[in-house]
Amino acid sequence: MFVLVEMVDTVRIPPWQFQRKLNDSIAEELNKKLANKVVYNVGLCICLFDITKLEDAYVFPGDGASHTKVHFRYVVFHPFLDEILIGKIKGCSPEGVHVSLGFFHDILIPPESLQQPAKFDEAEQVWVWEYETEEGAHDLYMDTGEEIRFRVVDESFVDTSPTGPSSADATASSEELPKKEAPYTLVGSISEPGLGLLSWWTSN
Amino acid sequence: MQRGDPGEHLGARSWLLGAVGGGGDSCEVKDANSALLSNYETLKYISKTPCRHQSPEIVREFLTALKSHKLTKAEKLQLLNHRPVTAVEIQLMVEESEERLTEEQIEALLHTVTSILPAEPEAEQKKKTNSDVAMDEEDPA
């Protein structure tokens, strides 16, 4: 679920922080810059793990701050393909079931990856697994807040860095902001025995 | 790391700075946008998994015990993270478990997992009472 990523970056420490220990200042700057941010093709950065190497700090003309090149390792959330995770159902929509991990919310289980046969209950806006046994069909609802075990089948990174000014748009678009895209999304699946709501598989 | 600013996570609540005033001046909040801690959420998530009771020694012991089963790194990692107790869960985490492991091996694996990796304290209590009942029922030998 979490990986250590080795990174290199130059950290700028302003002069009014020179009295602090360099390591502490650098750790804080790195956390400020990266924590809770998604790095393209790497994952969601959680926190600094350690600093492996500090190179010499330089002060450049015109800027009183020191610049230090730092080699460090960062804890990053990046589940591998086919990993099993346990999350909570955030909600259901016609696009599928939305799952959240508490610190990461952009997980979707599309309808074709649900336990089949499944149908969407329009009245309650919830997905239902129509489980057939000899006694008849049981409707197993996927309610919000339930814990769910799923497999990660796909991930996608979207580069959300700002683009330059777009070519002259004569017609002002009606919406103020373009649709916000999640920089990192996961696609899950529960179409295997053992996957789905934990309550479906407890053998008590 | 030269790509420019990384994208902000949707619904982002960035790392809380708190008052980091230098020596002596009044405390000031540097970043007014930071409200909640995402690291706190991560910690909360992890504290609900079986991992919270593990220590480096337990992990080492577990990995040594698993050497004979010939599992990949990813499979061992998932066993550590989830502490499966049923054969169905093992099948999910170990690829092609039907071909690679016999039933006794799956049972042995489950036993290794449950004996070395500590469980939640209340779950242990519940299991003790349950297993007493089960033992009475299934006593062929």
From TrEMBL, chain A:
Q: Which CDD domains match?
A: RNAP_III_Rpc25_N (cd04330)
* Region annotation Disordered: where it falls in the sequence: 158-178
Write one Gene Ontology MF term: DNA-directed RNA polymerase activity
Q: Which UniProt keyword terms apply here?
A: Antiviral defense, DNA-directed RNA polymerase, Immunity, Innate immunity, Nucleus, Transcription
Quote the cellular component terms of the Gene Ontology held in the record: RNA polymerase III complex
Q: Name one GO biological process term.
A: defense response to virus
User: Would the keyword Phosphoprotein turn up in this protein's UniProt record?
Assistant: no
InterPro entries hit by this protein: NA-bd_OB-fold, RNA_pol_III_Rbc25, RNA_pol_Rpb7-like_N_sf, RNAP_E/RPC8, Rpb7-like, Rpb7-like_N
Query: What is the protein's known function?
Result: DNA-dependent RNA polymerase which catalyzes the transcription of DNA into RNA using the four ribonucleoside triphosphates as substrates.
Family annotation (PANTHER family): DNA-DIRECTED RNA POLYMERASE II, III, DNA-DIRECTED RNA POLYMERASE III SUBUNIT RPC8
Q: How does it assemble?
A: Component of the RNA polymerase III complex consisting of 17 subunits: a ten-subunit horseshoe-shaped catalytic core composed of POLR3A/RPC1, POLR3B/RPC2, POLR1C/RPAC1, POLR1D/RPAC2, POLR3K/RPC10, POLR2E/RPABC1, POLR2F/RPABC2, POLR2H/RPABC3, POLR2K/RPABC4 and POLR2L/RPABC5; a mobile stalk composed of two subunits POLR3H/RPC8 and CRCP/RPC9, protruding from the core and functioning primarily in transcription initiation; and additional subunits homologous to general transcription factors of the RNA polymerase II machinery, POLR3C/RPC3-POLR3F/RPC6-POLR3G/RPC7 heterotrimer required for transcription initiation and POLR3D/RPC4-POLR3E/RPC5 heterodimer involved in both transcription initiation and termination.
- Name the family the entry cites: Belongs to the eukaryotic RPB7/RPC8 RNA polymerase subunit family.
**Protein name, as recorded:** DNA-directed RNA polymerase subunit
Organism in which the protein naturally occurs:
Pongo abelii (Sumatran orangutan)
From TrEMBL, chain B:
Regarding the membrane, this protein is recorded as: Peripheral membrane protein
Q: Which InterPro entries match?
A: HRDC-like_sf, RNA_pol_Rpb4/RPC9_core, Rpb4/RPC9, Rpb4/RPC9_sf, RPC9
Which GO molecular function annotation, any one, does this entry have? Answer: nucleotide binding
Please name the Gene3D superfamilies in this protein's record.
Answer: 1.20.1250.40
Pinpoint the RNA polymerase Rpb4/RPC9 core domain residues.
1-120
How does this protein assemble?
Component of the RNA polymerase III complex consisting of 17 subunits: a ten-subunit horseshoe-shaped catalytic core composed of POLR3A/RPC1, POLR3B/RPC2, POLR1C/RPAC1, POLR1D/RPAC2, POLR3K/RPC10, POLR2E/RPABC1, POLR2F/RPABC2, POLR2H/RPABC3, POLR2K/RPABC4 and POLR2L/RPABC5; a mobile stalk composed of two subunits POLR3H/RPC8 and CRCP/RPC9, protruding from the core and functioning primarily in transcription initiation; and additional subunits homologous to general transcription factors of the RNA polymerase II machinery, POLR3C/RPC3-POLR3F/RPC6-POLR3G/RPC7 heterotrimer required for transcription initiation and POLR3D/RPC4-POLR3E/RPC5 heterodimer involved in both transcription initiation and termination.
Name of the molecule in the record: DNA-directed RNA polymerase III subunit RPC9
Q: Which organism is it from?
A: Pongo abelii (Sumatran orangutan)
